[in-house]
Amino acid sequence: MQTKGLTETHPPLSPNEALVESNRCLYCYDAPCTHACPTHIDIPRFIKKIATDNLTGSARTIFEANLLGATCARVCPVEELCEGACVLGKDHKPIMIGRLQRHAMDYAYTLSRDREGATAIIKLAPRTGRTIAVVGSGPAGLSCAGELVRRGHDVTVFEKRPLAGGLSTYGIIALREPIEASLEEVRMLERLGVRVQTGVELGATLSLEDLRSRFDAVFLGLGLGATPAMGIPGEEWIVDGLEYIEESKLNGEGMTVGQNVVVIGAGNTAIDCATIATRLGAGTVTMVYRRSEREVRAYRHELDFIRREGVGFRFLAQPVRVIAKNGRVTGLGCAEPPEGLEFVIPADQIVKAIGQEKPSLARTLGLEVQRGYIQVNADFETSIPGVFAGGDCIRSRNIASTVMAVQDGKLAAAAIHCRVTQHG
């Protein structure tokens, strides 16, 4: 059976396509698209520079607001943000802001293959001698690290995994961001001066007390924990959704995919898992959700996409047990509320994507928490002086996303800069 594979959904724009599309922009004053962008990129400005064949200037405009512009161009839900706010969207087709941003970023990365090229696009302030530790190399950590290096500070990022990049590397489906795109973004920040140490875990090989004694400030970009247990019989047969995505990124079409795949959950991660299954050859893929369709947290355009992929849904279905025979999964037993009548969905592979646990390390470190998330003040400082945090680990309200984590890192970096320069 021919599979569709996991190559990026949208190919890069050609120079002519980018020119034509950029000239469609109205370059609005007080543009709604800029207000809709959590990092507040000056979108009309960077698009205007593409239209005038100034790709270097376009990239600089993006980097001024968002050092992870390449990732965000690929993974942001632009339909809900900048493109959703485009004034042309009401009666015409909105500007392809995400793809134009990627066009500028791709060009920038061809120029930043060494430190000289990187610093020609992203200007660095004189060195301050101040040192900051960043724990976690996901979008929040990398954004904070890059912004601090840009301000002249010495920054070391500590990452427990073998590869840096966090969810951008391991947990975002390759249709949106190939692993190499994430790693190239890390390498660019290293060229700017960010030091990245992998295989170092806070609470295991590294202590917060040690970091506080060695660095002028600490930023925690811890992300979230593991997928929670469901507490149903036979759960040991269920595949973790984040591990499913990770395997697809590391092993590609070499990973094992069932013929009848059931994905438990209906969020964006669940949709990614269902996409992997159907793209890599599953015969049938069914998403199971215990609530109604109107309560689904995934973006509407993602639901439309996965339905076009041929994936089916079973709403109001509460998983109650995994059925296995002779060492093989054969189905998922579900109960239909409110009567509780049980039915079985045939399956030879079951994947769960039901969210992630809150950052358990927060309490271990002695940090105050709010609803299980790290509590921070308006400057992203935690209950421990000089220790800051951002990204999913503080997201007790609102939906967590890559671009929100990037903005957290940027704002935290500004606060850290003020702290370390004022105190010395």
Could you describe the 3D structure shown?
Helix 15 links the parallel strand 7 (284-288) and strand 8. The strands form four sheets. A five-stranded parallel sheet has the order 3-2-1-4-15, sandwiched between helices. A five-stranded parallel sheet has the order 5-12-6-7-8. By secondary structure, it is an alpha/beta fold. The protein is globular. It has helices spanning 15-22, 32-36, 43-51, 55-65, 69-75, 82-85, 97-111, 115-121, 139-150, 167-170, 179-192, 208-214, 241-251, 268-279, 300-308, 361-364, 402-422, and strands spanning 131-135, 154-159, 195-198, 217-220, 239-240, 260-264, 284-288, 312-314, 318-325, 328-336, 341-346, 349-352, 369-370, 373-374, 387-389. Helix 5 packs antiparallel against helix 7 and helix 9 packs parallel to helix 17 (402-422). The chain is built from 17 helices and 15 strands. It folds into three domains: 15-111, Orthogonal Bundle (Fumarate Reductase Iron-sulfur Protein, Chain B, domain 2); 125-225 and 357-422, FAD/NAD(P)-binding domain (3-Layer(bba) Sandwich); 235-352, 3-Layer(bba) Sandwich (FAD/NAD(P)-binding domain).
Radius of gyration equals 22 Å
The CATH topology of the largest domain turns out to be FAD/NAD(P)-binding domain
CATH superfamily of the largest domain: FAD/NAD(P)-binding domain
DSSP strand count: 15
Biggest sheet record: 5 strands, parallel
Shape: globular
Quaternary arrangement of the chains shown? single chain
Number of domains: 3
The low-confidence parts are: none
Distance between the termini: 65 Å
Whole-number mean pLDDT: 95
Structural category? alpha/beta
Beta-strand percentage range: 15-25%
- Percentage of helical residues? 25-40%
Q: So how many helices?
A: 17
